[in-house]
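Weekly modeling sync, notes
Attendees: S.R. (lead), two postdocs, one rotation student

Agenda item 3: backlog of single-chain predictions. S.R. asked that every request posted to the team notebook include the full sequence so nobody has to chase files. The rotation student volunteered to paste the first one in as an example of the format we agreed on. Action items at the bottom.

Example entry:
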Amino acid sequence: MVEVIRTNVAMIRSGLPSTNLKIRFKKIGSESKTFTAIIYMENKVPKDTLKKIIDRIDSIKLENTHDSGTIERLLENHPLSLFPQIITTERPDKLTSDISEGRIAILLDGSHHALILPSTLKMFLQASEDYYERFWLGVTLRAVRFALLIALLLPL
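Predicted structure, as returned to the notebook:
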């Protein structure tokens, strides 16, 4: 990903050439008026989840917004949670695969990080390289990561 939002949107459009791919542009920040893109697959994203996220973005009251980390903190439901609720990525291939699975991506102009939400525990155990491996190898690697997570947390 790069800092120019139009370039990022073009990369996503080339990776997901579908008529169901929808992109909504909004401006965030009373002074900075930073362009923000909300990207999703219309036929796969739950409508109530999309409405909640758009409403929450519309309710953001900031003067300046230059980084996706600021928006991430404002979109979280439980800021004191041990697990992050939003995934950030710089990889267009991960972003397009998550969008095609029915998640919502948020891009900010000037930031090379994209926000992916909602997130699940499965997403934290999956590496981007798993998409390029054979199915059974990818499943095995995820199972090993899950076993390691359990081994780390069980003694607590």
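Discussion: group reviewed the output briefly. The helical segments are 5-15, 47-58, 68-75, 92-100, 121-124, 135-153.
Action items: rotation student to repeat for the remaining queue; S.R. to check formatting next week.
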